[in-house]
Design a protein that fits this description.
Blueprint (H helix, E strand, L loop, with lengths): L2 H44 L2 E11 L2 E6 L10 E5 L5 E4 L2 E2 L10 E6 L3 E2 L4 E3 L2 E6 L5
Parallel strand pairs: 3-8, 4-9
Antiparallel strand pairs: 1-2, 1-6, 2-3, 4-5, 6-9, 7-8
Length: about 140
Amino acid sequence: MKLADKKGAKRALVILAAFVLISGAFVGGFFAGKSGQRVETQIAWSDSEVVYAEILDVKDGFFHVKGLDVNDINGRSEFTFTAKENTRLLWRGTNISLSDFQTGDRIAYFYVGEVLESYPAQVQNVVKIKLLDDEL
């Protein structure tokens, strides 16, 4: 084998190895990013805040509530929020519908993210609402 052929073969092998390493880094980064997204979603659910409240008004998924005294000082005011299609609605661990919530009911609502400082305060992302009354 000639010296030029050996150099060309060595160069091709180096280029192939570099290509394999770069491709592996891209694929690994892609899956690491996907994995990180799932972890962030799990953290968001576990980091949800809970507020216990009495319903002042409820209509078509829009809630106006007053926080109960069992909450810390930030949860005792009036709040509004909308139950969206991905909001879980529960009573004693069983799924219920929006029509099961009535004025005067006591609830626990779980949210993640921002609360707009207005009056009443506006909760942006309610992920779960639990009906607390014993009778449905």
